[in-house]
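Tokens for chain A. Residues wanted.
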């Protein structure tokens, strides 16, 4: 469950990142008045999105393993 939650954070970051970044990129291209076209590399964005989800899921593995080895009563009573 912890690993899935971490993967969902990756999905959220993968959606919000381009959603916030692309309008700013478009604005920079328009303001700079360059002849460079504004293009969205869909294949590269999909690859980065997939890698992001996998990395965040992998990052959640250590806490998930630690949580699975700890008794709930011990985890609640610990005061860290």
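Reply:
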């Amino acid at each position: 469950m912890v690993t899935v939650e971490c993967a969902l954070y990756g999905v959220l970051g993968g959606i919000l990142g381009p959603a916030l970044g692309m309008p700013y990129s478009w604005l920079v291209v328009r303001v700079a008045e360059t002849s460079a076209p504004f293009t969205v590399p869909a294949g590269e964005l999909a690859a980065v999105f997939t890698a992001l989800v996998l990395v965040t899921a992998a990052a959640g593995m250590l806490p998930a393993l630690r949580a699975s080895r700890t008794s709930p009563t011990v985890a609640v009573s610990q005061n860290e």
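The CA atoms of residues 25 and 38 lie 8 Å apart. The chain has one domain: 2-69.
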